[in-house]
Write a sequence for this structure.
């Protein structure tokens, strides 16, 4: 005989499932499509109307509404977005006037410049750090650091614009794949947000801290100018930046609100392979509290970003 007493269930009251509220019905289930005949839009429509699949639809709805109302759609991206080959996808969204501002950390800018100028990027860090060669590609450091020094002294351009102009001026052989160059060609603000000491170009003798600091500070103010228009609509996407861009965005939003701009009532979304503290708090939760909505999507960028782009384009081919 057991020494532990069991609670009898004889008196438990049950209810009818017919009267019970339920979250899921077969109308929400996935739908089968013939991959040999279905269009992309039909495949997208076949996804379940449950949890993340429905939230992704809701985010797409927010983006479509934002652009139809001429509200900002700001994309913040880390270096991995460029490394996994998503530049063509991002450039297409820029050309279609769906994305209105691209903010990069400086790792993304490095990968973008290397791709545009030399058609290759992403070195083997584990191998090259053993003998101190990691991040020491002379051409990369010279291009970026010298571009910043020149623009610092001769113009009011920011970090992103300075690099984009130089890619165009030197006719980068792969500039059609450059997010920097494409944004500049289509008059879409592109900003680079550096933390000194975090990037390979900071290791090289051409690095100028004053120029780098001033140029990224100019870009902070350009981003704040875009953020100020997030009023009763608009969307901010953070794709693959765990620290820098969530922090920069929160400060830009604070500046806009401090100056009296009613930047609230917008949507934000974080896309990353794992959920990180700062994106969840500084992008998804705090900026949208009381007004707006935040989303979190977990998955590989090389899958999630093309899926998102296809869903947007199926509903919003182009904004005139």
């Amino acid at each position: 005989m057991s020494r532990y007493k069991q609670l009898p269930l004889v008196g438990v009251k049950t209810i009818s499932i017919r009267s019970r509220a339920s979250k899921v019905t077969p109308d929400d289930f996935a739908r089968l499509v013939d991959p040999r005949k279905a269009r992309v839009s039909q495949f997208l429509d076949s996804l379940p109307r449950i949890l993340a699949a429905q939230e992704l639809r809701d985010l797409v709805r927010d983006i479509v509404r934002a652009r139809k109302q001429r509200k900002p759609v700001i994309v913040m991206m880390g270096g991995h977005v460029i490394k996994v080959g998503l530049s063509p996808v991002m450039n297409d969204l820029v050309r279609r006037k769906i994305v209105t501002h691209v903010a990069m950390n400086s790792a993304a800018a490095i990968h973008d410049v290397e791709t545009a100028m030399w058609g290759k990027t992403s070195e083997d860090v584990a191998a090259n750090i053993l003998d101190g060669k990691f991040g020491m590609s002379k051409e990369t450091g010279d291009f970026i650091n010298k571009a910043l020094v020149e623009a610092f002294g001769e113009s009011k351009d920011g970090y992103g614009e300075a690099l984009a102009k130089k890619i165009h001026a030197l006719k980068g052989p792969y500039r059609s794949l450059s997010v920097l160059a494409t944004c500049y060609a289509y008059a879409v603000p592109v900003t680079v947000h550096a933390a000194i000491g975090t990037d390979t170009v900071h290791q090289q003798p051409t690095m100028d801290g004053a120029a780098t600091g001033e140029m990224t500070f100019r870009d902070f103010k350009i981003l704040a100018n875009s953020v100020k228009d997030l009023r009763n609509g608009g969307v901010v996407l953070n794709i693959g930046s765990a620290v820098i861009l969530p922090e920069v965005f929160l400060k830009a939003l604070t500046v806009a609100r401090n100056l009296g701009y009613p930047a609230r009532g917008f949507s934000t979304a974080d896309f990353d392979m794992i959920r990180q503290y700062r994106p969840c708090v500084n992008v998804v939760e705090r900026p949208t509290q009381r007004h707006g909505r935040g989303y979190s999507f977990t998955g590989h960028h090389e899958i999630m970003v093309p899926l998102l782009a296809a869903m947007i384009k199926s509903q919003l081919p182009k904004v005139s």
